Amino acid sequence: MESKHLIMGTAGHVDHGKTSLIRALTGYDCDTHLQEKQRGITINLGFTRLSLPSGNTVGIVDVPGHADFINTMVSGACGIDFVLLIISADEGIMPQTREHLQIMELLGIEQGIIVLNKIDLVDEELLELAEEEVYEFVEDTFLATAKVMKVSSLTQAGISELIREIDDYVNKIPQRSAEGFFRMYIDRIFTVEGFGAIVNGSVLSGRVNSNATLYLQPGERQVRIRRIERYGIEAESVQAGDRAALNLVGFKQKEFSRGTLLSENRIKPTNLIDVKIRLFGGDRQLGIWNQVVFLMGTVKQMVRLHLLDQDELVGGEQGLAQVYLPRAIVPVMGDKFIIRLSSGDLTLGGGEIIDPYPLHHRRRRQQQIEIVKKLSSGDLAEIIAAEVRKSMLPVSLTQIAEMMNQKVDALTESVYSSLAGDIAFFQSEKQIILLMTKLKTAYKNKVLNSIRLFKQQNPLSEEGRSFQELLGIFGEDRNDITRETLTMLLEEMETDVQLRKAGKTWVLYNHIVELDPEFNRKIQAVMNYLLSCGNNVPLMAGINEAAGAEGIEEKELKLILQQLTRQEEIIHYQNSYIHSQVVKLAQAKLTSFLKQHEEGITLAQFRDIMQTNRKMAALLLDYFDKKNLTVRRNDVRYFTTQYKRYLES
Questions:
Q1: pTM for this predicted structure
Q2: What is d(CA 577, CA 537) in angstroms, rounded to the nearest whole number?
Q3: Among 137, 176, 214, 299, which is disulfide-ready with 241 (CB 3.0 to 4.6 Å)?
């Protein structure tokens, strides 16, 4: 059986002995900074590991207990699997004890052990009273059924029993799932000579291997993993629940700032999020607009918080809000956060992100609030539908899954079984694409209108709009998703007998071109005139005169020239119309000459072999340049490499 690797955090009031307890458990002192030694408190996150008798390993995050450093505590808690709530037997429950437990609950920690420390400072009677106080304190929390272990870090009393309890506890806790894509906040960075930049963090989700490429975010800077260590030991990979050290190639310390995240996927940055929020009990209150400190992972920002479904929120209540961030973050739906007073001296509460990319809700319209409420329910079908409704373009289920840090397979069943009626989807070989039903109808109408317009402008054409031309219904957004959407739209419209293929184009299903003999005669008359011009440039005045003599009206002539150009019966270049036979003959003569003359051909030489004038010769040579048959160097033309290879093949 493969050994487990979990992360255990410490929590509790300042000076209740968290760091000394870790030293007693592991022999390692997490107070490694001079300032910590001098002040006797843990400021920066401390990390060590505990090897258990069963062979399992626990990475230990020693979070600071002082209220000034709650933001550091939150950055450590984001990857914790279970917690040791440490309470000093001589002092009992203190303000930061309550605050830490509330924060742990809001950050989604659901497992833990309670430790009554410093039992050497109290007698049996006081110890019993302290234990009763602890049971009352955790009665309605996730630690309600947790064991209370009594220890002394100083005398080592109860330490071996605590280690056995941690070992038993780890055996009962399932290994954190490695599903989702790799994400890790950087909470420490340093440089090692000969290796370069080393970054530390707790892996939030997913798995990553050595030599993998990651994105440094916000932004899309790419870095590569040269080496991985897990709990100080080199490893081939790390996954959710691991404490990791990554040696990065292409990373510079100056690129690091608080809130920097490593991810295997690009995550779109955002300055606006919708959240579900809960206030701690007591004298806490929020109005419609608030300025608070926002803490998430290693992110710390002063933000504006706008209540959506209520005008006021008081201690113990929960509601919905929109958060405005001055600097972009890269969150995922479901990420937990904490909020504190702007003065930084009181933790108000916290919650989770329910929409990383919401619409703006400044006016708090009821329809918008109802959408946010549906998102907060956690119902997958509602979340999928809400994301689709926000976009005026098709979206892939893969995009939604990445935003939620879910696997596509986990969302597919909801699409098949319980998708809202106003959402449509296409299933291609590669992916599922979703869009609003009304948008799908609008796209179909745009396709039909585009083809009808082409028919009006080209009544003689047997063909219609090409796929590339029809992509214009999506504006400038021509990507894999819109291409697949158009492919499936056209296939559906063909099945519904609205369209049919005509060559490489699409036409209306009932598209017919019927020309009477008289109109055919007019077309042939135009062709004959252009052919009769031979090696002379046909002037537009001459074409108009010849057309008039045949009874061809100006509008008819325009249609005829457009159609013949589309069918490549004539060539339209530099406002001139030339019969395709003339162009083909010129190309043949040019090719024959250049095969025999590697020194190239001048304009004068080409004019002579064509027995034409300078204007026609220049026009044809420019046309061959454009078609990439020849290339001009000074006043001489040569075969292009591409055309030469074609002739030799």
A1: 0.70
A2: 8
A3: 176
Confidence at residue 42, expressed as pLDDT on a 0 to 100 scale: 30
Residue 611 neighbours by CB distance under 10 Å: 10
Give the residues across from 82 on adjacent strands.
8
pLDDT digits (tens, 9 = 90+) for 125-183: 999 999 999 999 999 899 999 999 999 888 989 889 999 999 998 888 887 777 788 99
Which of 97-111, 348-362, 514-528 is least confident?
Answer: 514-528
Which token pair is 436? Answer: 């609003």
Break the chain into its structural domains and give their ranges: 5-172, 183-263, 270-372, 581-648
Cβ 251 vs Cβ 216: under 8 Å: yes
Spatial CA neighbour of 104 closest among 347, 321, 291:
347
Q: What is the CATH number of domain 270-372?
A: 2.40.30.10
Question: Whole-angstrom Cα distance, residue 502 to residue 582?
Answer: 28
Say whether domain 581-648 belongs to CATH 2.40.50.1070: no
Backbone region of residue 258 per phi and psi (left: phi > 0; alpha: psi in -120 to 50; beta: other values): beta
- Euclidean distance between the first and final Cα of the chain, in Å? 62
Type and span of the H or E element at 132: helix 124-137
Q: What is the mean pLDDT of residues 496-505?
A: 90
Secondary-structure class of domain 5-172 per CATH: alpha beta
CA gap 10, 77 in Å, rounded: 9
**What is the chain's percent helix, strand, coil content, to nearest 5?**
35, 30, 35
CA-wise closest residue to 403 among 270, 214, 240, 298: 270
How many Å separate Cα 142 from the centre of its chain? Answer: 33
